[in-house]
Design goal:
By secondary structure, this protein is an alpha/beta fold. The protein has a domain of about 200 residues: NAD(P)-binding Rossmann-like Domain (Rossmann fold), CATH 3.40.50. Helix content is about 40%, strand content about 15%. It has eleven helices and 13 strands. The strands form four sheets. Strands 3-2-1-4-5-6-11 form a seven-stranded parallel sheet, sandwiched between helices. Strands 7-10 form a two-stranded parallel ribbon. A two-stranded parallel ribbon has the order 8-13. Helix 1 links the parallel strand 1 and strand 2. The radius of gyration is 19 Å and the shape is globular. Bound molecules: nicotinamide-adenine-dinucleotide (NAD) and uridine-5'-diphosphate. Uridine-5'-diphosphate binds next to helix 6 and strand 8.
Length: about 325
């Protein structure tokens, strides 16, 4: 892509956020704009939504560029590159697995090449999926994981592992300043209601009084982090000393079965939904919980928002979104 007219006023920090119109990326854009940075949000809108950044339109220094990071990146003088571009829910990333792999590998390479040229610092949104279906519990950063390289989740898991490899190869070979966060399941306002992840699925179905589908017997566990806590961790990592490169686990160590989550959502929404059973997807991890000892000691970070509190805010935002998208007659009834 040719150089675009986003000139770095060097008195202000210039940040590129790939995947900036997505759930997490839009919260990162908000915080950067609030800091006074110029923000170039690069997104192909495959799972992201213009609505997530609509409130930033017209804000001086904010720009949304529609582009695919697997193909190219705008050639801009930047201080920071936040790489969040990649569909994150299993149904979305499995829809076009080859493109998911290319987004992870080529998207990462394009970010690192731009950083090498400009001297920018790079943040990589890695994932707990690098641990696969873990035999070590809770997961520590030194654990190398149990990942299938050929299963339906591999395009995402192996793509993210390769992206981490590229980060540290660029650091050792070219001195690029990298920060790698291994993100555990995160939820909150601006998740897409159609995204297919468990929190959004359960809330949407509960609000519509439809059955909540438990995949498998619902005994598998996940640890859910509220978005505000996660983004605080991102900024502590990105703004910390250069020796703190990560990978660092960022997540909430509270661990819940999917059965417990479903019951909690039904209770909190006051829903009449019942729970129904569906087959467990292939390679679905049995358990997941972060060891956040490293984040605590290196970043002084730990999550502050309990699941009940975060779910209340998330349910409210979904209720509003579903209400706004309902036909007028339903809204008035
Ligand atoms: P999301 O799907 O809401 O956001 C991803 C964004 O990337 C979307 O706006 C999408 O349109 C964009 N995108 C995808 N492929 C692209 C491409 N080739 N070029 C340009 N834009 C592209 O998901 P999210 O939850 O906000 O996740 C953001 C990042 O964090 C992802 O990299 C994901 O892997 C990582 N992550 C998220 C979680 C989580 O629980 N939310 C957990 C682990 C890792
Ligand atoms: N899941 C479920 N019902 C749903 C969606 C997901 O029971 O409607 C399960 C899924 O099988 C997994 C867990 O919830 O065990 C978390 O799924 P999600 O897609 O949110 O994230 P990931 O599997 O990537 O951690």
């Amino acid at each position: 892509m040719a150089t675009i007219g986003f000139h770095a006023g060097r008195e202000r920090k210039v940040a590129m956020v790939t995947g900036g119109a997505g759930f997490l990326g839009s919260h990162v854009c908000d915080r950067l704009v609030a800091e006074g940075a110029r923000v170039l949000c690069v997104d192909n809108l495959m799972t992201g939504r213009r609505a997530n950044v609509a409130h930033l339109r017209g804000v001086a220094g904010f720009m949304l560029i529609e582009a695919d990071v697997a193909e190219t990146l705008p050639d801009v003088e930047v201080d920071e590159i936040w790489n969040l571009a990649c569909p994150a829910s299993p149904p979305s990333y499995q829809e076009d697995p080859v493109h998911t792999m290319m987004t992870n590998v080529l998207g990462m390479k394009h970010c690192l090449d731009l950083a090498r040229r400009t001297g920018a610092r790079v943040f990589q949104a890695s994932t707990s999926e690098v641990y696969g279906d873990p035999e070590v519990h809770p997961q520590v950063e030194s654990y190398r994981g149990q990942v299938s390289s050929i299963g339906p989740r591999a395009c995402y898991d192996e793509g993210k592992r390769a992206a981490e490899t590229l980060c540290f190869d660029y650091q050792r070979t070219y001195g690029v300043d990298v920060r790698v966060a291994r993100i555990f399941n995160t939820y909150g306002p601006r998740m897409s209601p159609r995204d297919g992840r468990v929190v959004s699925n359960f809330i949407v179905h509960a609000l519509l009084d439809e059955p909540l589908e438990l995949y498998g017997d619902g005994s598998q566990t996940r640890s859910f982090c509220f978005v505000d806590d996660l983004v605080e961790g991102f900024f502590r990592l990105m703004r910390g000393p250069s020796r703190v490169t990560g990978p660092v686990n960022l997540g909430n160590p509270g661990e819940f079965t999917m059965q417990e989550l479903a019951q909690l959502v039904v209770e909190m929404t006051g829903s009449h939904s019942r729970l129904s059973a569906s087959p467990l997807p292939m390679d679905d991890p049995r358990q997941r919980r972060p060891d956040i000892g490293l984040a605590k000691s290196l970043l002084g970070w730990q999550p502050a928002v309990a699941l009940r509190e975060g779910l209340a805010a998330t349910i409210e935002s979904f209720r509003e979104e579903l209400w706004l998208s309902a036909p007028t007659a339903e809204r008035l009834s």
